[in-house]
Design brief:
The protein is α/β, with parallel strands linked by helices. The protein has eleven helices and nine strands. A hairpin with a 2-residue loop joins strand 1 (95-103) and strand 2 (106-118).
Length: 385
């Protein structure tokens, strides 16, 4: 091959190499740009998603606040009797306030709901210790009966007493500071009253599952299905919700603890009523439920219990009849009352993605909750989540 042809081939090869290099560089640059663009899109999408989530959460919170204020107005303006007879003391269905279908065919629903629940229909943990710091023996016995009905060791109430009282005396079944300091992570014993029921789940012998999960006995649901002949009062006597410990107990601190121990007969559940006395039988509780049903959900005066034969039989403590023990007589204050002073009110706001097949996807849910002291017209507890 001549020198001229060799130079020509060499120049051609160099040109091909340079072209390939340029093409490779351009290709790599394109891939890099594509990756950068995809990353940017993901980042922008995430930021947009977060912004939308924050926006949905903000709107849901506004709805929750509106529900909370509505519930406050209801409790403050409507006579208590009508709260029960008109079934306002419960969980009214969610109200669809608006439906926005302007975003690409997607429909967004704005829901508001509120709950009004008499909190003094439950047993208040804080009454286990008196205002002088000593154990409240009568209330301890009530809690022992309640724990027994949930198939829990009644001695476990000792750990609640030790958590509340200021002394270092170890109660039967209880736990003092050395137990909580040995935990990982360690805890400092409170030695004062509880402000929220959630505290109970960290105590010895307790957990979130015990407090908030249904403790339904084996075979109970099957037995209920077989009892098709039951009356309405018998069917409502025990439900799935009754087997949740948190539905039977509470933890709040009134302005003055003394004198707020009594349980509202119109709001008390089966296990709460059964724990008030050793003489409180299933027949006696059923008689209360029937009496509430006959009076459209509201017993106006405890004197109505006098006519019930189940409450006239002796068997209460100190030789008293069941009526005398729970309603009170003479020096015995009793455990029941026929009105509510404390209401737990909750406003719930939700932003929901709607679809044609009735399936819904929750985009944001917010709750505003508080305990309202009706006598003092003041909130004694408030929380948002």
């Amino acid at each position: 091959m001549s020198l001229r042809k060799m130079k020509a081939v060499s120049l051609k090869t160099d040109s091909l190499r340079k072209g390939a290099g340029i093409l490779l560089s351009v290709g790599l640059f394109g891939v890099s740009v594509a990756l950068m663009t995809a990353g940017y899109v993901r980042k922008v999408s995430n930021v947009y998603g977060s912004a939308r989530s924050l926006s949905d959460g903000f709107r849901a919170r506004e709805l929750a606040e509106a529900g909370f204020e509505t519930a406050l107005l209801v409790v403050g303006k409507i006579p208590e009797q009508f709260l029960f007879t008109e079934a306002i003391v419960s969980s009214p269905p969610a109200l669809l306030l608006s439906r926005d279908c302007s975003k690409g065919g997607r429909c967004i629903g704005h829901y508001l709901r509120y709950n009004v629940i008499p909190e003094d229909g439950k047993l208040n943990i804080n009454h286990l210790v008196r205002s002088d710091g000593e154990q409240n023996d009568s209330y301890v016995r009530i809690f022992e009966r309640l724990l027994e009905s949930f198939d829990l060791n009644p001695e476990n109430v000792g750990s609640i007493v030790d958590w509340l009282d200021e002394n270092t005396n170890l109660s039967l079944g209880g736990a003092e500071s050395n137990h909580y300091e040995s935990l990982v992570p360690s805890l400092k014993i409170k030695n004062t009253y509880m402000y929220s029921l959630s505290e109970l789940s960290i105590l010895k012998h307790f957990s979130r599952e015990i407090v908030y999960a249904p403790q339904i006995p084996d075979g109970w649901e099957e037995i209920q299905k077989e009892l098709a002949f039951q009356t309405d009062a018998e069917e409502s006597l025990l439900t799935k919700d009754d087997w949740i410990l948190a539905n039977n107990i509470t933890a709040y601190l009134p302005y003055q603890l003394l004198g707020t121990e009594k349980i509202n007969i119109n709001a008390a559940r089966y296990h709460v009523l059964s724990s008030l006395s050793d003489a409180m039988t299933r027949k006696a509780i059923l008689a209360i439920f029937k009496l509430r049903q006959e009076n459209n959900g509201y017993i106006e005066n405890l004197n109505a219990l006098k006519s019930l034969p189940e409450f006239q039989a002796e068997g209460g403590s100190g030789g008293l009849t069941l009526y005398e023990e729970v309603a009170g007589t003479g020096s015995v204050s009793g455990f029941l009352k026929a009105s509510s002073r404390f209401y737990r009110i909750t406003g719930i706001g939700s932003i929901t993605l709607l679809s044609d097949n009735s399936e819904e996807e929750s985009l944001a849910v917010r709750r505003v909750s508080g305990i309202w002291d009706k006598d003092r017209k003041a909130l004694i507890y408030y929380s948002e989540d």
